[in-house]
Amino acid sequence: MRGHRRARLTLAAAALVAAALSLAAPDAPSVAPGAPRVLTLEIRGPITGGTAEYVAAGLAKARAGGYAALAIALDTPGGALDATREIVQAMLGSQVPILVWVGPAGARAGSAGVFLTLAADVAAMHPTSNIGAAHPVTGSGRDVAEEAGKDMAKKVENDTAAFARSVAAARGRNADWAEKAVRESAAITSTDAVKERVVDFTAAELKLAIEAADGRKVKTAAGESTLRTRGAVLEPYEKTVRQKVLSFLADPNVVAILMLVGTLGIALELYNPGSVLPGVVGGFALFLAFVGMRVIPVNVGAVILLLAGAALLVAEAYVTTHGLAGLAGAACLVLGLAFFVDRSSPDYRFAPGALVVSPWIVWPTPIIVALALGFMAWKIAGTRRRPLQLGAPGLVGSAGEALSDVGPTAGEAFVHGEYWQARSAAPIPMGARVRVVAVDGLTVTVVADTAAAG
User: Fold this and answer.
1) 42: Cβ–Cβ under 8 A, 6 or more apart, which residues?
2) Which one of 385, 410, 429 terminates a domain?
3) Which of 120, 269, 288, 442 could form a disulfide with 100 if both were Cys (CB 3.0 to 4.6 A apart)?
4) For residue 416, what are the domain limits?
5) CB neighbours of 200 closer than 8 A, spacing ≥ 6?
6) Same domain, residue pair 199 and 60
7) Which residues pair with 168 in a beta bridge?
8) Angstrom distance (rounded) from CA 363 to CA 379
């Protein structure tokens, strides 16, 4: 009985403690049973093939998991046209309702981002964001006609305008403004976007946009339905390692640095065979750089300039050119970095100035590379000044031991870890320390090592 009484007292005490903790603890947000779930994606930076994979995977998960909707937080200067078309096609064919929110504060749906916003079932914007400027320009912001000709410019513009109109019409948005964004680079604020029926409303947060979408009727590939997103549980969907790498390589600054590191690494391996590490690092950097070149528009001529510049700087370390090769190499690096992004690719839609190599990469890089190679040249010159340690010439000056009596005609000595026939002008007794003064075939001429004897 006493044991049962103790058990009851223990249970009562535990219940009191639990009750006290529940009263003392702040109210935690509770999730109602059966609350809708919304899968959230985040698109930041240029739209690439990795972005298309990410969105496609998110749509597949949202459909398979029975999510009420898929929400995308968007902030992009634009991106690859083929990737944009792939994403838009997936959005228009989705059976799960899609909400696009241009945010956070100061975000933009530039160029290719316009198409993603237009393709959403529900589109919202942060009050301080903007959308537009979808005219097909080159990587430098110049008109296609200036670099690819009027015929190509007209073809690209008409095709892109038709694309914009068809997407806007499919979602009941302002097709006239969509065409104007392409043909006239029209860009508007969030307030004007609501007035022009480009987006549905503004919201300061993604969660608020999802709440505001509740009750709206949408038409997906599965048919017409009403969104039920009030009190929804938001579940972020993370990118895979591959998609993160592709997003990382969408930065031209990263690709340019990888090109330089890779080129220098391979060059150092060729000039100093057997070091291994520079070659391995250089090869991996070049591999990543070549992957990045498939993600962003890269000028082939600029790549050649970078390779030539690195080669000239390496040559300056080994060949006496009185600084001319180094100067030419630095100039090639500056020009290659300045023109690294392709200026004539009509297949990419970026907002002007959005995809450029930073001046902090362009100007300091040649100086850093030149200093690094100058240090290496100094080390190599110091190595060349040292006495040769390999082969017969390396034996001269080496100390050893007489293995037998050494005279003008015969004798043996142990020098440099090897057994040699030895001779000496003056007799040297067995066991004495000797020093090599000449080498003739397999015979060394030695003298008594007076320094060792003293």
Assistant:
1) 72, 73, 236
2) 385
3) 120
4) 392-453
5) 122, 123, 124, 194, 213, 216
6) yes
7) none
8) 26
Residues 299 and 318 in one domain: yes
HSE, CB side, 13 Å, CA atoms: give it for residue 406.
28
pLDDT in tens, 184-237: 889 999 999 999 999 999 999 999 999 999 999 999 999 999 999 999 999 999
If asked whether residues 181 and 207 sit together in one domain, one would say: yes
For the segment 307-350, what is each residue's pLDDT rounded down to a tens digit? 787 777 667 666 766 667 767 777 777 777 666 665 555 444 44
Mean pLDDT value of segment 111-132: 95
Quick one: 46 and 105 in the same domain? Answer: yes
Provide the token pair at 375. 């240090």
Same domain, 129 and 45: yes
Residue 255: name the closest of 222, 287, 216, 207 by CA.
287
State pLDDT tens for residues 398-426.
Answer: 889 999 999 888 899 998 778 889 999 88
Please state, in angstroms and as integers, the Cα–Cα distance from residue 307 to each residue in 192, 286, 310, 376, following that order.
Answer: 48, 11, 5, 19
Contact criterion met (CB below 8 Å) for 424 and 407? yes
Spatial contact of 303 and 336, defined as CB atoms under 8 Å apart:
yes
Domain count of the fold of the chain: 3
Q: CA-to-CA distance for 372 and 378, rounded, in angstroms?
A: 10
